[in-house]
Amino acid sequence: MDLNIINRLINYISKLYIWPHMTVGIKYLGDDMDEENMKFYLKEDLTKYVGKWIAICNKHVVSSGKNPVRVFNEAHKKYPGTRPLLTLVPENSAMIF
Amino acid sequence: MSKSFRYKEMNRPKGGGSAKTPMLPITLIGDNSFDSFGLIDSGADYSVIPEGIAQLLGLKYDGEKHPTFGIGGSVHCIDSKMQIQIEMDRRKYTIIIPVKVILGKKGDDMPILIGRAVFFDKFEITFMQKQMKFRLKKV
Tell me, what's the ipTM? Predict the structure, then answer.
């Protein structure tokens, strides 16, 4: 069975039966977090993407834009089967929420 | 079990110095699962995500719309729950945290915020600003 379908099933069951806010015992059945992409994000100068969402696959920014759904879908189209890192490159002004 | 994480440094254009932020690597789990970074915000009561992220994860957010206030003003949100995973020394911790989904385009300009509710009960967080690091310890 496709791994994505299994994950969707687990996600659906957890919404139904797992008490909210508790640590769950079910592990996500996917690859480990891609540390190379994480390191790329932390080290790389991403000034030109400030204020935009970026998707990183294989240590490259593969799509960017203001809408996270479009950015994710574009990355998914370019690199099917890989799990992208999707994040916002925050604005340069001081962040106060 | 604890792990230290480096701050993310962002250079400001035109020689405006740099901003350093405590960004935590997380995996968001849902209909589409993906890695991301959450800004640890000890001043926020709840975690916050833009509507686009909720759509990608297939979160249920059809409850009552209500305003949420911050220094930046107020935004309309709907309460939901989100499943996240954190890796610490090859161990994975999966938790469900309450989130406020910011509706509309306004949320697209905001990073994923990890607020205190539930998350700060599960992890002890130490900020080491001078070393540009923060440490997470499983409680």
Answer: 0.87
